[in-house]
Amino acid sequence: MNHSAHINHDAVLRARVALLGSGKPSVGERVAAYRVLVQVSPLAYLPKLAVALGKYSRQFAHRPETALALRAESVAAARRMCTLEPERAELLVRSLSYYRLQLRLMGRSAEVLAVDEEIALVESGGWSARDASPPPAH
Questions:
Q1: What digits encode the pLDDT tens for the residues 96-120?
Q2: Can you give the pTM of this predicted structure?
Q3: For 80, 88, 113, 130, which has the most beta carbons within 10 A of its beta carbon?
């Protein structure tokens, strides 16, 4: 069975229409569309998903666990980006920084230290996707 057999083509079409429609979709609508489209075109949509998730998480300042989950998803998307993508390291550091900030706001200092180490590794150029484990589930 090939990869396209697992893709909901109607969902892909709806996601594309949502993004290309006459009005500008909200950040939440963009996140929903990118989550679908990343399945068919990860090179194009992982960076957009990572950025949109970071923006979307700000709307949940009153719900810290939700904001943290969205920021963790942003980090995961940035980690999955192609190693040849020129802005990968910058986007990963930005996503990790937002994730780190949310951890700090929630008083989770032990986890902040692990994120600090990953940021330093990425900034030094010594990071690869296989080096980092995903952030802990919350």
A1: 999 999 999 999 999 999 999 999 9
A2: 0.84
A3: 88
Sign of CA dihedral 35, 36, 39, 45: negative
SS3 of the chain: the string is CCHHHHCCHHHHHHHHHHHHCCCCCCHHHHHHHHHHHCCCCHHHHHHHHHHHHHHHHHHHCCCHHHHHHHHHHHHHHHHHCCCCCCCHHHHHHHHHHHHHHHHHHCCCHHHHHHHHHHHHHHHCCCCCCCCCCCCCCC
CA distances, 17 to each of 88, 111, 128 (Å): 27, 39, 35
User: Quick one: 2 exposed, middle or buried, by C-beta within 10 A (0-12, 13-18, 19+)?
Assistant: exposed
Q: Roughly how many angstroms between the first and final C-alpha of the chain, as a whole number? A: 34
pLDDT tens per residue, range 12-38: 888 988 888 878 999 999 999 999 999
